[in-house]
């Protein structure tokens, strides 16, 4: 049976964010011989009250055909943002209607929020003592309202196992693609990303949008240096070598890089090497030592440390979990 995703539509919702789960999960298709072309997720939208119209922040409403009982069927619940959260936003508590809806959710259900949907998860107690993120403009208010939550305002999303939160608006796409990648591997996530015409993985975090939404076109960028580095990830890359590609000092290059990408050059290089290692582990028969060399980590020990830090698993466990059965031309 496909994994059941239930999206909870609340009054004041943003239509764009409501559509993200349907677009990403609803278009995720199997790529393996036994399930090629089959839908991997069953996406259902429900309201916190009986079926009927739900107000949006636009000049139209939507009609939802399922009531809160649908939450009892969910393997994953997704809560998009709403601009009319009432006491959830002002006092950090669920309304009686929301509390009754949440009572339908089975223990162990994976919980996901997009943007300020994180307020609902926090008010329901799902984020107590856990890391979480939300739209950068709401991060300070969110932290004051829920001091027991460890808020990170800089990242695009946070995966804390059975509870996942995303930053603002389009970061919901990043999080949903991440969930597809976690559930079914890179091949499926890349396929739905291509058909949605979005990148399968974005670099950096919210900082790049807070500090400089559009870089000054009169100033040099770091695009050339990044392209240069991506073409030689398997080799040693020094910061001064990257700065030289842009004819900048190391100090200027580092500042400009962080403004544009949201992380330091070293952090970005590590992210790119982790992504390359993941692709090699999933799609090739290379040994762990060779994957470490080809992705620029040098040794299997270094690869293991970085993969553990980034993903929480060893290279061997990652390969066993996400290895494509069609890798290396085998079916």
Q: Tags for this entry?
A:
disordered C terminus; six-stranded mixed beta sheet; 331 residues; single chain; two-stranded antiparallel ribbon; 42% helix
- What is the strand tally? 10
* Residue share in helix: 40-55%
**Range of strand content:** 5-15%
Low-confidence parts: 207-219, 324-331
Structural category is alpha/beta
Mean pLDDT, rounded to whole units?
Answer: 88
Largest sheet: 6 strands, mixed
Report the order of strands and helices.
EHEEEEHHEHEHEEEHHHHHHHHHH
Shape: globular
Distance between the termini: 23 Å
Using only CA atoms, what is the Rg?
Answer: 21 Å
| Major sheet: arrangement of strands | 2-1-5-6-10-9
**Multimer state:** single chain
The number of helical runs is: 15
Summarize the structure in words:
The chain is of the alpha/beta class and 331 residues long. 42% of the residues lie in helices and 12% in strands. The strands form 3 sheets. A 6-stranded mixed sheet has the order 2-1-5-6-10-9. A two-stranded antiparallel ribbon has the order 3-4. Helix 12 (265-283) packs antiparallel against helix 13 (288-294).
